[in-house]
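Notes from hallway chat w/ T.B., transcribed later so I don't forget. T.B. wanted the structure written out for a chain they're using in a teaching module, and asked if we could keep both sequence and structure tokens in one place. Agreed to drop them here.
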Amino acid sequence: MGLRTALTSSRVGRPGPLVTTVALLLVAATFVPLGYIVSEVFSTGLSQAGELVFRPRVGQLLRNTVGLVVCTVPICVLLGVGLAWVVERTDVPGKAWWGPIFVAPLAVPAFVNSYAWVSVFPTMHGLSAGVIIATMSYFPLVYLPAAATLRRLDPAVEESARALGSGPVAVFVRIVLPQLRLAILGGGLLIALHLLAEYGAFVMVRFDTFTTAIFEQYQSSFAGPAGSMLAGVLVVCCLVLLAGEATVRGNARYARIGSGAPREVTRIRLGASAIPVLGVLTLVAVGALGVPLWTIGRWLRIGGAQVWDFTEIGQALGQTVVLAAVAALLTTLCAFPIAWLAVRSTSVFARMVEGANYITSSLPGIVIALAMVTVTIRWAPPLYQTVTMVVAAYVLMFLPRALVSVRAGLAQVPIGLEEASRSLGKSGPVTFARVTLRLTAPAAASAGALVFVAVATELTATLLLAPIGTRTLAMRFWSLSGELDYAAAAPYALIMIVAAVPVTYLLFTQSRKAAGR
């Protein structure tokens, strides 16, 4: 019996040829953008490529992009960690409400936030405008993991430090901050990658970055060598960020030894400081949520009933839902073989397959779109400007969002249940459908929801790849706001925000569950 169990376990745990083949095909697809950049460099010629890269325009774009990252990421880290510490460690009034409020800005696309701020302050432009809008859009990417980490930390260590005479600031710097390193690095990396990829938000404030310049180059010369070289520099920037974060992160980990006794942390009493702290919290909430919501409401009021063109809105909403639903389903399905390899295998091949998807997804959508355009024009013209290529680009861009959830769900499936199914004579596909898939259904649903909202608000790749006649919510909003018809654009902005609210709430509740709250 023992021998039979071991053999069955090996058979269940070892990825089959179908899983391996699908994973290899997905890896090959993920390397298309990188292969496109490399091929463009060689086809252009090293000398001409050097001339296109080492020119004043590229230097200006590099200064703008680096300046944006250098200014925005530290501000978002300070803001996100500071807000998380106030909400989770002090007796600030209304602490139960501040958490959802500071996660809610994730439901507002950055280009909608830019539209709102420009509507209120029409003279906003340049680096300072980009930093303000990016900070208000992306600080929750640090707040969310920082708050979740603070909930998991053992409060006994902080209480011991305070008992030994350390003040709140000293306890935070010496005890809490080192344990937030992974959350800070992870959130900072996500923000930096978003800044490299963002297009709409910075166009509205007339701030040039690599992504905006690549899009302009594409429009003027249809993906000429200059645009390709700019994309190559942008890819290098992405890889530098990934390598830098991995180096700084290192191998250090902070964890409890033992489960400990679950209890609430003793919150720091703010006393008279509560008033200025509340002022700061309110100011951030107004900037991140108040401005976009007030602006949308104002334009809806100014536009009146005529801005609600239900024929146009219905068409845009229908196309958005169909594209997002198809992409979410396919992306979640594609995540299963990769997650299976990651969970059931410890081989180098499994690690490479998983890592390849994260590297490719870190590339801006415009680079992926340019690669897809070039590949289809050269080798598959019938696929050019078809829904198939749009959905394929979405899968490449958002596969890691699904992979994180699917992998977590698959890791919790007891192999013993699959072994029992196989011992009863059920085939591998039947076992997967009746056992594995049912147990991972909640995680798969979460993955699909995340991809759905990401696709519903995606702009850059959709603008480049969408077939003629395609009008998603994001495309209609962008078209109308580009014509300065802000009132007509307001309904589309509102619908995108409403569609993202459930997923944002899901992220918040999942972070609290993971922390045991």
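Follow-up for T.B.: The first helix runs from residue 2 to 13. Might be a good example for the class.
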